[in-house]
Amino acid sequence: MEVLREHLLGVSDSGKIVFLEEASQQEKLAKEWCFKSCEIRELSHHEFFMPGLVDTHIHAPQYSFAGSNVDLPLLEWLTKYTFPTEHKFQSIDFAEEVYTRVVRRTLKNGTTTACYFGTIHTDSSLLLAEITDKFGQRAFVGKVCMDLNDAVPEYKETTEESIKETERFVSEMLQRNYPRVQPIVTPRFPLSCSETLLGELGNLAKARDLHIQSHISENRDEVKAVENLYPGYKNYTDVYDRNNLLTNKTVMAHGCYLSEEELDVFRERGVSISHCPNSNLSLSSGLLNVPEVLKHGVKTGLGTDVAGGYSSSMLDAIRRAVMVSNILLINKINAKSLTLKEVFRLATLGGSQVLGLDKEIGNFEVGKEFDALLINPKASDSPIDLFYGDFVGEISEAVIQKFLYLGSPFNITAYGWPHRSHQDSLMDQRK
After folding, report:
1. pLDDT tens per residue, range 239-258
2. 53-354, superfamily in CATH?
3. Is 336 exposed, middle or buried (0-12, 13-18, 19+ CB in 10 A)?
């Protein structure tokens, strides 16, 4: 993380960053880019811009029970709470209410880019994509695929239905040609998918050059169950790999129990990991050793994993990622913990790399889109108290740290990116 003070950032009408220079270059820049002094938006000494937050793993339908029902381990939690709730999304009206709320809430929380799981229902998943486009959030949206579910048999598809409906979902998404919303192939995980389904989804992703998302090695019981269900494979990673689901466009959530051999496969295939610390802690699933993952050269971002993670805020994900790293240090698993700066990178540029968007967003490099949050630590109802020592005439790293640890949506006073039109959150792109 680098803090730039006394700088000018220029954004074109299309939303691209065209310059980022020291303020002393204003006269030269004004001649080159034909702007007047009155057109410059000058931030107060306590305000700052930061890149938009990237949530690399969130279950949109589970937002309906976020903040509750985190009292069971993963597999029991899925059976008792998750599958029955997701089954309700065959109702378009119910889906519209929940999906509208989750998109609005995540935007208020500063999530400008999200990678969403929908449900097995094609039409409601298409609706989720429509809503994210309507509100201007950049997103990947996946129709969940699952043809195995003995525990809640009403919530599954036949293998043929799952393949056919996924093809329909992808085709309709591509035909709609949303500027910022893309389809993503979404097998839930091997315990919910037959070998045939996994293979066909891998073939579809390869044929259409699509992104892929799923879960891996979240919980010890889950890992053991996958080994029992797929005895012909070396390990959990091998199940995905031999079915063409591990590519440089794949993001896998969790990964708490991946071996070094499996991490090497991730690196070789270009697969990314979404670290979901709130969910991993709340469901007592495990602790991802992020420094070890990064040491293996595996791209890593952060995810809220609603509703196993009870908060839809990426600020919460940042805070809990630091805590998990500290826990590993306390238990002498690692020699040092991740710094706040390192975790901030995971939530911004790291997330953009995970989703293959790092040439477009993630920081304020010239040529990228102005995907930004305007932060005001002194906003009305702010949970942050600032003192003279926090800054002397200019923004300090202490103020930024206070926002990351203490901040809330009250401090996010605007967010902006190209082609944004929703009135209650529009940021003037020319400023």
Report:
1. 999 999 999 999 999 999 99
2. Metal-dependent hydrolases (3.20.20.140)
3. exposed
